[in-house]
Task: inverse folding
């Protein structure tokens, strides 16, 4: 039952990623060239709505609908090094592959099978971060 | 209505839909973060059993794998049944630039054939770019503690300074690659 709920939310997410063209390599390239407003409009309007949603949920802290637990929106751990360095590496990969982790799954379903190599490499990349974690500045 | 939904969704509809996805996950007691699934895959494969990052109860993350599975089916349904055309109407300036770099299907397709066509995996340059891009996305997302969904949407919506730093990092990396490295990658 719960799995179906999360699967359905994912379904909505996948359709949104494809239909908004946020999963298109071309839109990511165009975004980094500042040649269209489209991606900035998507992120900006998502943030506008997201900020209101987050504010309301934090203010009224309702219980979640599945478990009845209080909804907790955790703060990120303070610091800057890991966010800046990790962010830069992520951004390089985002620009090269033209896909971030959400759209990767969408593109697989849409039948762009070379994305399997991207998903596999991203999993390997995650694994290597796990290996090197204590040696990196955080 | 049908016509609206079967054409590429405008930004002012797409953005709120993404926020709706974030809301639904919060409302059902979870958080919106897709790159966590890559960590779960590492842990579930058993390869990471000696590495602290992967020593957690990955079965507790099955809900997020269900979200990813839904996203796969969503991509399939949207591509097969929902979208009237898969040509992405990028700006003429972008089409010109990409055409000059040899990406001739810019403006006429959803993904460049050079990287995502059926024979992309027989091309050495495409193999290198897909592997390198994916590796950096996976490594960087975990290093930064999140990706576009976790930092750019969830984190910024919660006015988190670390997320702002991460998103600035995303753009530093993306802009450098896009403006200074691409001319060498495709020429």
Result:
């Amino acid at each position: 039952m719960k799995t179906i709920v999360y699967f359905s939310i994912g379904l909505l997410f996948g359709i949104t990623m494809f239909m908004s063209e946020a999963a298109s390599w071309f839109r990511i390239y165009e975004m980094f060239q500042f040649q269209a407003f489209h991606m900035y409009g998507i992120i900006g309007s998502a943030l506008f709505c997201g900020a209101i949603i987050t504010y309301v949920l934090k203010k009224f802290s309702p219980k979640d609908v599945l478990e009845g637990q209080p909804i907790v929106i955790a703060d990120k751990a303070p610091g800057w090094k890991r966010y800046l360095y990790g962010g830069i590496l992520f951004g390089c990969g985002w620009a090269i592959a033209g896909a971030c982790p959400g759209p990767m799954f969408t593109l697989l379903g849409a039948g762009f099978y070379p994305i399997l190599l991207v998903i596999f490499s991203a999993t390997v990349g995650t694994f290597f971060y796990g290996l090197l974690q204590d040696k990196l500045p955080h | 209505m049908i016509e609206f939904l079967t054409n590429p969704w405008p930004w002012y509809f797409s953005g709120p839909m993404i926020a709706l996805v974030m809301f639904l996950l919060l409302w059902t007691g979870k958080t919106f973060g897709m790159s966590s699934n890559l960590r779960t895959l590492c842990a579930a494969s058993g390869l990471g059993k000696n590495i602290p990052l992967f020593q957690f109860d990955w079965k507790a993350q099955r809900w997020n794998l269900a979200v990813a599975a839904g996203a796969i089916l969503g991509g399939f349904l949207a591509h097969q049944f929902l979208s009237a055309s898969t040509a992405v109407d990028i700006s003429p300036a972008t089409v010109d630039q990409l055409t000059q770099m040899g990406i001739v299907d810019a403006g006429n397709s959803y993904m460049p054939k050079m990287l995502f066509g059926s024979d992309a995996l027989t091309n050495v340059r495409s193999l290198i770019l897909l592997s390198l891009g994916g590796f950096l996305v996976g490594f960087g997302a975990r290093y930064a503690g999140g990706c576009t969904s976790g930092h750019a949407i969830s984190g910024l919506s919660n006015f988190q300074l670390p997320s702002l730093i991460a998103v600035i990092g995303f753009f530093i990396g993306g802009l450098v690659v896009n403006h200074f490295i691409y001319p060498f990658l495709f020429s």
